[in-house]
Design the sequence.
């Protein structure tokens, strides 16, 4: 890989194609799994693409009280999420951008995307927007420190906060990479993921009850192209969060050589892992009810405890760098 | 009044036993004792067999004493209060207040004639707080000045009517001016208002909710209704008495059969129409099937509102099976146009599936399995327990009815308390909860489905073998003015219809008291102190009818 700019550039393009192109399909798979548990057939797998296409062809409509924030927020949020894509090792190592950007940047970018949407929801001046913003920021304020802690838990054995470095260590160590601290960190991350992506039992993306909404309440005012950006961004945020979990928890299969065949195999493996993760979440969502809003704090506390435990254990058994 | 002490014979979190225990009901006065008590109040009651009530005429100055006497001394709550513009005394307004007793008691029917041009009546709401909506309606519909009524805002009408709509005179259309309406103010630092509706995100009826909230905590909720006011009571006027069930069943469309049955009983009692016993059994069967379908919808709704979509889907499948059964029997999923005056409006018995009894038995088992599965899920139970609590004291004070009251520990059910039709001589087990939260309401509703299946099976056994087609029965012209009262325990609670029929067998005044008219304040009590995201769940567990309140 050394020297040439071409290979990393191609890998980068490939990653974007994979994440942007595949995330609507993954969402459709998740919805279909849920529909099956309810005895419904569910929407066709191409439905999210059709929705995006439909919205893309429509202009936005803005409240007369809305300022430029409402207009630009979806694009800023989308861009922030786009920038987060190459921070995750998808199928090649080292990551195409190499040392530029680590997971702390990723937390910041996710925070930025959350922040501008919350701001835009306040900007519109509707009650539900304000309600959604207050809930989303409350969850965000609790989730971000825990997210950092989880990153340290994953990163401390590798001595790095770069996902590429952590994954590379995992690939090199093979099965020896899986140790008790890693398991604790995975549990912490999964709890965090439920909050961060707004899935059940934290938030119900399928609900029509405005008073219970978190994320949906913030974007009620959006339509057309803006809604397309928000929904698409939401879909591949889910893919990013899963991709990161896969890269940190089970990095095996990511290609470290530049051979086209191996890279192709790695792409297949990562798609399979992503599909599996979405099916798993779909099945989980079918089994639980939505929690009371303030129970989310308990969930994050639990995640923090697990992350702490992982960090402490890593030093006790000498996994620390 | 102080909150009564809990009996404590049942652990508060256990599902209530499905059997009404002997001695669970306090001893009730017999009609003879009622008469003595009323006599002690200085009243001279007349027994009215078409209502099964003691009828008393009182002057406006004796109104409060008589009403409080009927309510306190006889322990009969005020079931409904309405006005009438009697045809025999043009220009006057007569106010009726009905206090339904529990068997063996009868009850009391107070009548008070008010003189034009300024009819005035003292309020009962200072003693009986739940009467206030009745009095607000009386004010706006008849122009009666209820003195001492604290809340003088309009109840159902959103626009200005030059003369009150139910007062005699030409029918008045709104003149377009808006009626001023102000919500109760709640002030303080950090308190903000959340307006929701009248148009909601789901496909439901319209109503406006105004929340005063601090953070996520609800300090106060005020519901404003009237968006589905259709002037139903006026639509009845002048129609032949055998056709009125068409409007009665659209008061609350999801309880069509109950509405039609209550209307039919009212006319049958007024005109002394006999119903063949076989038809009564079919009515009972249809009413129980409607209750099963309706309550299954509630149960599914509760599951959906806690985000448990897979559970909701299974309850909804059962619910649809119940509606399909109704459809196969009557040609209408809601059973519309089936129950009429004198029996049934179309032949039903020939349509019944011979294996229907096993169908009910299967539902009974299925809903039992569903309940066990849900109540075994910690994430579901956690949402239900302690959510939207209505204490027994509040339920009694505000005279809530139906499953809402039963979940709070009141064992009231007209099928048991004042049996009618096929329920006469039938044992009806009335379940109740003690905690008054969403979980109690869910459990009570599930128990009621089980009991309804059992009753339906019993009615099927009692169906006469004779399946002769029925002939349309037209009620006779009475030749004099008659009135009658019909009562039915609908899926939401007691449904009352009071009719006055003229000498030409046409309707002169019909008053419909949907159970939701009494139960709507329950939502305001249930969510006080709860958090905003729990409101939809409380709302669904109460399942109040907007249309039934507005009419």
Sequence:
């Amino acid at each position: 890989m050394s020297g040439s700019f071409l290979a990393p550039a191609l890998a980068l393009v490939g990653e974007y194609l994979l994440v942007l192109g595949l995330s609507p399909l993954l969402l459709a798979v998740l919805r279909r799994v849920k529909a099956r548990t309810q005895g419904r057939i569910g929407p066709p797998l191409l439905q999210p693409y059709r929705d995006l296409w439909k919205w893309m062809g429509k202009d936005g409509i803005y409240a007369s009280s809305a300022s430029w924030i409402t207009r630009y927020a979806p694009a800023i949020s989308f861009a922030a999420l786009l920038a987060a894509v190459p921070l995750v090792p998808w199928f090649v190592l080292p990551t195409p951008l190499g040392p530029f950007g680590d997971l702390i940047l990723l937390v910041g970018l996710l925070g930025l995307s959350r922040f501008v949407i919350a701001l835009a929801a306040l900007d519109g001046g509707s009650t539900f927007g304000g309600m959604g913003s207050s809930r989303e920021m409350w969850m965000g304020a609790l989730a971000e420190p825990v997210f950092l802690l989880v990153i340290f838990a994953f990163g401390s054995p590798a001595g790095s906060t770069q996902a590429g470095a952590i994954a590379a260590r995992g690939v090199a160590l093979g099965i020896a990479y899986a140790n008790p601290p890693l398991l604790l960190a995975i549990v912490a991350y999964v709890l965090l993921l439920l909050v961060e992506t707004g899935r059940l039992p934290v938030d119900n993306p399928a609900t029509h009850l405005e008073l219970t909404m978190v994320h949906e309440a913030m974007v009620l005012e959006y339509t057309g192209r803006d809604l397309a950006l928000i929904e698409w961004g939401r879909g591949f945020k889910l893919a990013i969060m899963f991709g990161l979990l896969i890269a940190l928890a089970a990095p095996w299969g990511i290609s470290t050589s530049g051979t086209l065949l191996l890279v192709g195999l790695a792409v297949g493996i990562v798609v399979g892992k992503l599909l599996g993760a979405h099916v798993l979440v779909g099945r989980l969502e079918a089994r639980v009810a939505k929690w009371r809003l303030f129970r989310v704090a308990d969930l994050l506390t639990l995640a923090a405890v697990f992350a702490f435990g992982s960090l402490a254990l890593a030093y006790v058994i000498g996994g620390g760098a | 009044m102080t909150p009564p002490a809990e009996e404590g014979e049942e652990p508060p979190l256990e599902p209530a036993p499905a059997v009404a225990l002997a001695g669970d009901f306090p001893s009730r006065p017999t009609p003879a004792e009622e008469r003595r008590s009323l006599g002690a109040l200085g009243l001279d009651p007349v027994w009215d067999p078409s209502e099964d009530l003691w009828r008393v005429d009182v002057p406006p100055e004796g109104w409060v004493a008589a009403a409080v006497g009927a309510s306190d001394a006889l322990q009969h709550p005020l079931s409904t209060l309405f006005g009438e513009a009697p045809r025999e005394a043009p220009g006057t307004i007569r106010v009726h207040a009905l206090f339904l007793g529990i068997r063996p008691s009868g009850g009391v029917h107070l009548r008070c004639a008010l003189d034009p041009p300024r009819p005035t009546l003292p309020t009962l709401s200072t003693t009986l707080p739940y009467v206030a909506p009745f009095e607000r309606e009386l004010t706006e519909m008849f122009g009666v000045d209820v003195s001492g009524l604290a809340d003088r805002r309009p109840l159902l009408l959103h626009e200005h009517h030059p003369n009150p709509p139910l007062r005699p005179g030409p029918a008045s259309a709104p003149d377009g001016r808006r009626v001023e309406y102000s919500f109760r103010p709640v002030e303080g630092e950090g308190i903000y208002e959340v307006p929701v509706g009248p148009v909601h995100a789901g496909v439901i009826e319209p109503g406006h909710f105004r929340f005063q909230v601090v953070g996520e905590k609800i300090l106060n909720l005020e519901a404003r209704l009237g968006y589905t006011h259709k002037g139903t009571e006026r639509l009845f006027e002048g129609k032949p008495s055998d056709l009125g069930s068409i409007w009665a069943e659209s008061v609350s469309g999801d309880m069509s059969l109950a509405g039609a049955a209550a209307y039919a009983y009212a006319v049958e009692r007024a005109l002394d129409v006999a119903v063949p016993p076989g038809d009564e059994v079919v009515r009972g069967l249809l009413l129980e099937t409607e209750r099963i379908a309706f309550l299954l919808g509630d149960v599914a709704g509760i599951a959906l509102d806690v985000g448990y979509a897979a559970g909701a889907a299974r309850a909804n499948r059962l619910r649809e099976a119940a509606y399909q059964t109704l459809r196969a029997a009557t040609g209408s999923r809601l059973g519309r146009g089936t129950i009429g005056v004198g029996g049934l409006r179309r032949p039903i018995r020939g349509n019944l599936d011979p294996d229907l009894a096993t169908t009910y038995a299967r539902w009974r088992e299925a809903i039992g399995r569903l309940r066990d599965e849900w109540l075994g899920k910690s994430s579901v139970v956690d949402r239900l327990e302690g959510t939207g609590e209505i204490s027994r004291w509040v339920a009694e004070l505000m005279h809530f009815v139906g499953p809402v009251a039963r979940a709070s520990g009141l064992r009231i059910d007209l099928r048991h308390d004042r049996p009618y039709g096929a329920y006469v001589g039938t044992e009806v087990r009335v379940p109740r909860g003690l905690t008054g939260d969403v979980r109690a309401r869910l459990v009570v509703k599930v128990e009621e489905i089980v009991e309804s299946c059992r009753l339906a099976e019993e009615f099927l056994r009692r169906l006469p073998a004779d399946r002769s087609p029925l002939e349309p029965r037209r009620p006779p012209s009475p030749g004099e003015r008659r009135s009658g009262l019909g009562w039915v325990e609908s899926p939401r609670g007691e449904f009352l219809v009071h009719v006055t029929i003229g000498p030409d067998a046409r309707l002169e005044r019909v008053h419909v008291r949907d159970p939701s008219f009494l139960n709507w304040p329950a939502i305001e009590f249930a969510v006080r102190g709860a958090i905003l995201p729990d409101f939809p769940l409380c709302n669904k567990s109460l399942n109040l009818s907007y249309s039934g309140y507005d009419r």
In short: Residues 6-316 of chain A form one domain. The interface with chain B takes residues 34, 37-40, 127, 131, 135, 200-201, 204, 206-212, 286-295 of chain A (CB under 8 Å). Chain A has a mean pLDDT of 88.
